[in-house]
Amino acid sequence: MEFDDPDEMRRECTERLGESAGERFAAMARRGFRLEPAEESAATGRCRLGGSALLEPETAWPELGGIPLSLHAVLDTDALAPWLGDQLPCRPGLLNFFYLDPDLPYEDFRHLDGFAPEACRVIPAEPDRAVERTAPSRARSYPAQPVYAAEVTMLPDCWDVTDDDLPFDREEHWGAESLILDTFGDLDGNSSGDHQVFGWPGLSHASGVSAAGYRGERRVHLLQLAEDDNWGWGDAGTFYFLIPEKALAAGDFSQAVPEMRCC
Question: Which domains are present in the chain?
Fold first, then answer.
């Protein structure tokens, strides 16, 4: 669930859940951004979808099995840092997001696993050293779209909460998920149609995996890519870049992993 006004979010929580549960639910909120197409002059720093990568001169273009990955986005974290605060514990400068394009018509692509960790790469670059790098011929090059990062505050989806997160009446609700479904059911929490940065992703509960945890390790949501005129992710799908919490704190973006959800 996404709110433009943090104060409105807190009011909704306490009015719907009561003071105790409302404060605890509001404390689970994460700051993030909704990425909106913009003119170059209105873009947030050097944030953009598609276009050229911004890499340091000695950085090689990433590949998997000899197939170059496709550049999907560049984030300027220096421009995002003031809103994120301690949610961005490192200062990586520019972040380049690459993925193994699933639509490339190469026979030698077919044996590759598009959901292996190596199928996506998040490569940081020092802003003062970064240079424009166009995609190799075998990678898809998407049109450059500058974006404005609109500040939002996000509450977790009902399927991202556990029974230990919130107090609830066990005679009235079968779990914390039931409590949130009942009290916030009139708010559309589905953000899977948006491009988003940080915050809570719009992961489907059907996956059984959320950004809150994976194989016992907490993960942080970096980037959510919805379908648009340039790419699609299956049937009404959404693509995510996630990173273990400890790896983000250490600035180790080599541990970023892909997730995709579709109907």
Answer: 2-261 (2.30.320.10)
